[in-house]
Amino acid sequence: MVAKLSPKVRITESVILQASNEVSRINDNQIIGFHVRLGKPQSDGGRLASYYYFYRIGGRNGRQVNYFIGNSSNIDAGLARRIAVQIQPHVKAEKDILKMKFEAEKSNVRLKDFWLYLGRDFFVKKYKNQADAIRNIEAIILPAIGSVHLDKLSHQLVELRVVRPMQKRNTLSQLKVVISQLRGLLKHAVQCHYLTVQPLASFDIEQEKTPITTKISATLSGAQIKGLYYRASKVGRNAVYLYTLRLQILTGLDLTTICASYRQDIRTNLWSLRASNGKLTGKIIPLSGPLKLLLKEILKTFPRAQSLYLFPAKKSSGKQQTMDVRSLAKAQQRFIFDVQQVTLSMSQLLSNIERAMIEAKLDPLVVAHLFNKKLADYLTLDVKDPKILTALETWYKA
Fold first, then answer.
1. Whole-number Å distance between alpha carbons of 336 and 155
2. How far is it, in rounded angstroms, from Cα 342 to Cα 331?
């Protein structure tokens, strides 16, 4: 019998062995949610079989979980099935298996797991400015030390992975806030009995910080701007601030305009722009080359069909919201400093892009149009003037 992608197959070792190479997944016909995923054929002809139990918490629109049971390197189909049978009644009782595992392993919990199940809700209830606090934890703390087990956290580790990188970015005022929020999270871990002592109780940033020498400049060359674009396209997949930076470099648009854009404003070869009040300005950016490809990538990366905005906020109380412009600007500034060791405001960034366009010999009237310069009526370009597309294509190739 050759297994097919069908819920009417009982998962056994023989079914897996007889599955053709075209079959990548087999669903069990008796245990809803239990399935096996088959890897590519190996040199010995065998395929790695990975067993999962899929379930939802909170109904059809609730959180989806694909619980990993194990793979053929350590268990067989029979054992995986017995584990699935044990999981099944808990799922029917609407219990979260991952959370049960998390609670059963208090002595071996990672910071990011504690944040997911207990920390985030605590911050929502405790902090008035919960959006900023949550953003700091998820954008700064978790990428740095989220995979560290709670009992392994120490002064030295936080100093190495959190404090020093922020000092290099010259974000000392933000650093104090971030460490304060991390202290609050770890204090909550102590209160929940996931830690016996607060590892950062005596952590003093003033004593730990070192002098920083920062090169401050308002000037980037065309080559440096090109370098920024290249680096932004190679790192930080799904990082909104890197996508917005690339859009700014390609078009000269400010962050407010980019964040005000609706998904529906991008049609075939045209991007219609909006003001911060949501009304169309009548201005249009023609799409071609890397700009067209970038916008396609953005629409694919953030595929929220129900979202109004091109860059929707991660969480909002039933109201459509876009990403916070101020937070994106700060993130872009940190990235620019890391890459070019230059501190720029957002207005300075746009001035640098404008100057680089002129140096790349773009039509001055097009540059004036892109950057909203006031010109005499007879010099003002129509929004669909072909000169705009020609100039932008020159810029893309510069």
1. 29
2. 14
Q: Report the pLDDT value the prediction gives residue 362, as an integer from 0 to 100.
A: 92
Tokens of 49: 């079989």
List phi, psi (to 5°) of 110.
-85, 155
Chunked in runs of 10, what are the mean pLDDT values of the chain (398 residues)? 57 88 89 90 85 86 85 88 90 82 72 88 82 88 91 87 83 83 88 82 57 55 89 77 92 91 89 89 91 88 72 66 85 86 87 92 92 88 91 90
Question: How far are the Cα atoms of 19, 37, 210, 352, 357 from residue 396, in angstroms, in the given order?
Answer: 49, 43, 41, 16, 10
- Name residue 53's beta-bridge partners: 34, 67
Q: Where in the chain is the domain with CATH 3.30.160?
A: 13-103
Specify the CATH number for 108-208; select among 1.10.150.130, 3.40.30.10, 1.20.120.140, 3.40.50.2000. Answer: 1.10.150.130
- Burial class from Cβ neighbours inside 10 Å (0-12, 13-18, 19+) for residue 36 reads buried
Beta bridge partners of 322: 312
- The reply to whether CATH 3.30.160 applies to domain 13-103 is yes
Class of domain 222-397: mainly alpha
Helix (H, G, I), strand (E, B) or coil at 55: strand
Angle, alpha carbons 88-90-92 (nearest 5°):
70
- The CA distance from 35 to 80, in Å, is 10
pLDDT for 42: 83
Instruction: Measure CA 89 to chain center.
Output: 35
Say if pTM beats, i.e. exceeds, 0.85.
no
